[in-house]
Amino acid sequence: MHHKMEEQHDLAKWLAGEMTKSELEAFEKSADFETYNKIKELSSQLEVPDFDTQEMYQNIIARKKKKKVIRLQDLWYMKIAAILVLVFGITFLVRPYVPTTEYASVGEKNTFLLPDDSEIALNSDSKINYKKWNWENERSLKLEGEAFFKVAKGEKFTVNTNLGEVTVVGTQFNIKARNKNFEVECYEGKVKVVFNKKTVFLTKGQNIVVQNNTKIEAIPLTDLQPAWLGNEIKFNNNSLADVIEELERQYNITIENTKDSSESFTGTLPLKNLDTALQIISKTFHLKYEKATNERIILTEE
């Protein structure tokens, strides 16, 4: 108990900046210093009202009409209580305002609803950030990866990616933004696509594929939903590296390949049959594949 009181007294002195140089050096070497420092850093980053503990305590003393004057520096427990209330109280206040993040890990999918009841399906290895608490005022999302959106009728928002942005009103569309590949497919309504200082409007059944900031030929839309929701992966003139990366993402596997290829692949691969997908890729890029394990595939020259 005595040791605990000493630790708390040290913490109070440190918070108040009253430690001598030798005391500070010893305190910084203590096992709990890193934890205390993180709490202090967190509290310093938060905007809080001025909090004068000296004045607060003197007001308490005055109200109680105590004759004996007690130095606040001696009341280490009050300082600790004050800083804990300050830090953890503000943490509880701030928590609801932290942006919401939705993930779909490798080999998984994730479907969720926005506050306006718009539905979003996230493809494997993708995430979306948005401010749930401020949705009515800030209708924007940040997408990394690929997602399908079914926007509630009459609702509007903007999806930002590192390759371009899409603005929508009550529509259904798919966005893929990976590496330098940016693809948007419109399945219902109308979407506005902005990329590389260009603006394109897509209506139902239209799509756009941008690679290295340049629009390229795309496979026309024939279905009512994205290929990945129908257990296929669609490629538009993609490199062998892109194809391997997508297979790894969807099947949660590792593919080793040493061959560079100038050829590209346009078409679809199955999402539920790895052997068939590997056979198609092998023929297209003139490779052989070998399963070292169920999770590790080796590609070699034919």
Automatic annotation (TrEMBL):
InterPro entries: FecR, FecR_C, Ferrdict_sens_TM. Residues 105-192 form the FecR protein domain. Residues 233-298 form the Protein FecR C-terminal domain. The chain crosses the membrane at residues 75-94. Pfam families: FecR (PF04773), FecR_C (PF16344). Keywords: Membrane, Transmembrane, Transmembrane helix. PANTHER family: PERIPLASMIC SIGNAL SENSOR AND SIGMA FACTOR ACTIVATOR FECR-RELATED, PROTEIN FECR. This is Ferric-dicitrate binding protein FerR (Iron transport regulator). The lineage of its organism: Bacteria, Pseudomonadati, Bacteroidota, Flavobacteriia, Flavobacteriales.
